[in-house]
Design a protein that fits this description.
The protein is α/β, with parallel strands linked by helices and about 325 residues long. It has 10 helices and 13 strands. It binds acetyl coenzyme *A.
């Protein structure tokens, strides 16, 4: 069986650190409120001249180094982003040029915070069918550009960053011992649009718009719906959730993360959490958390990983990976 396997991961965070205390100077909030309700202590903010593609390129370079690959070998780039540099071309096309990849396919996937899991499933289709020999899947976001800085209910939650993985084909036996992406479950419920959306766009207002959210409703849907998708992805992979070594959720809120882990019976020692330092970086949060877990030695080759995300759409989904 031909499978797609993760052969390198990398993450990049812009330099500028914005603490909760910094935010308390511009909106009526406090470090205490933000930490208690979300677990977030700080977030990063991209420099004015940095677009999502620039963050993506830095993460991609680190993932390529980890995989021992060069830009010349990349034949597919998928960028998951909801904050593209431009309406078009796709951020992936800008990344291709900036990385210096001479050929190949490049396009974006837009599923907001679920974008990385959606993009992985698309790339898996290319790699596992022999259509790509070396693919880059990147989550890259400049969420701070979508904030209404007068809305304390949203502006404290998000940050900027990028994470990337290299996917390559490997031959497997068709068992759960195989390396690779072993199972997916993806979902969307478009009737829940009003719970989380951006109030602008090229074909309506002609503006970029600001993020709008009914936080407590999103919270409720997140905890309930993610568990079902996680169970479905584990079933598709043929593994019980309890056998997973590392749970790597989308990093929106520590309480959501703990709520989902508890529902699934995953002990907190097996959960990767970066929400305190990164806040919610949308499509970038999972590959950033993965990169951190690999860099600090917790996540090792051969281990079973469970990824899950939920975001605007509402979209959500999960993926099981043998590293
Ligand atoms: N500082 C101080 N007070 C605040 C702030 C703030 N930053 N934000 C809201 N409040 C106030 C509200 O105005 C409200 O005051 P009121 O009672 O006087 O009206 C009070 O706090 C409670 O507001 P709630 O919205 O009910 O607070 P809740 O406990 O639900 O926490 C939060 C809000 C943190 C947004 C929570 O609902 C949440 O995390 N939801 C998930 C949303 C999320 O993470 N979305 C990300 C995208 S989707 C995803 O990635 C899963």
């Amino acid at each position: 069986v031909l499978r797609s396997a993760v052969t390198g991961v990398g993450g990049y965070l812009p330099e500028d650190v914005v603490t909760n205390h910094d935010l308390a100077k511009i909106v009526h909030t406090s470090d205490e409120w933000i930490v208690e309700r979300t677990g977030i202590r700080q977030r990063r903010k991209a420099a004015p001249e940095q677009g999502a593609s620039d963050l993506a390129v830095e993460a991609a370079k680190r993932a390529l180094d980890a995989a021992g690959r060069t830009p010349a070998e990349i034949d597919l780039i998928i960028v998951a982003t909801t904050t593209p540099d431009l309406t078009f071309p796709a951020t992936a096309a800008l990344v291709q040029r900036k990385l210096g990849c001479p050929v190949g396919v490049a396009f974006d996937v837009q599923a907001v915070c679920s974008g990385f899991v959606y993009a992985l499933s698309v790339a898996d289709g290319f790699v596992a069918r022999g259509l790509s020999k070396c693919a880059l899947v990147i989550g890259a976001e400049t969420m701070t550009r979508l904030m209404d800085w007068t809305d304390r209910g949203t502006c404290v939650l998000f940050g900027d960053g990028a994470g990337a993985v290299v996917l390559e084909p490997v031959q497997g036996q068709g068992t759960i011992e195989d390396r690779g992406l072993l199972g997916f479950a993806l979902r969307c419920d478009g009737t829940k649009q009003d719970l989380l959306y951006v109030d602008g766009g090229p074909s309506t207002t002609g503006t970029v718009g600001h993020l709008r959210m009914q936080g407590n409703q999103v919270f409720r849907h997140a905890v309930i719906n993610i568990s079902e998708a996680v169970e479905a992805a584990a079933e598709a992979a043929g593994v019980p959730v309890s056998s997973v070594d590392w749970f790597i959720p989308h990093q929106a809120n520590q309480r959501i993360l703990e709520g989902v882990a508890k529902r699934l019976g995953i002990p907190h020692e097996r959960v990767i959490s970066t929400v305190a330092e990164h806040a919610n970086t949308s499509a970038a949060s999972i590959p950033l958390a993965l990169a951190q877990g690999v860099a600090d030695g917790r996540i090792k080759p051969g281990q079973m990983l469970l990824l899950e995300a939920m975001g605007g759409g509402l979209t959500w989904g999960a993926c099981v990976i043998r590293l």
